[in-house]
Amino acid sequence: MQRVTAEEARAWLVEKLAIRLGVGQDQIDVERYFDEFDLDSTEALILAGELEKWLGFELEATALWYHPTIAALSEHIAEESDRHVTAA
């Protein structure tokens, strides 16, 4: 398992959201709340699944609740990645 930095996680999330929303990556505000991006629950679940597949580990179900922006979630992903790499 490879360590994922906050910058890598942020770039991944911005790219995937931009594709899903059909907008340019420069239009994705990393400080905007996820629930403001007009993703329906199915799209959010698909995105979460793709994220976990990319990361190689599951995020806790409350991750988006406690880290509701791309910026906050990216930092959390980096911390979780460090924890998983260290534990491996």
TrEMBL record:
Residues 7-81 form the Carrier domain. Keywords: Phosphopantetheine, Phosphoprotein. InterPro entries: ACP-like_sf, PKS_PP-bd, PP-bd_ACP. SMART domains: PKS_PP, PKS_PP_betabranch. Pfam families: PP-binding (PF00550). This is Acyl carrier protein. It comes from Streptomyces flavalbus.
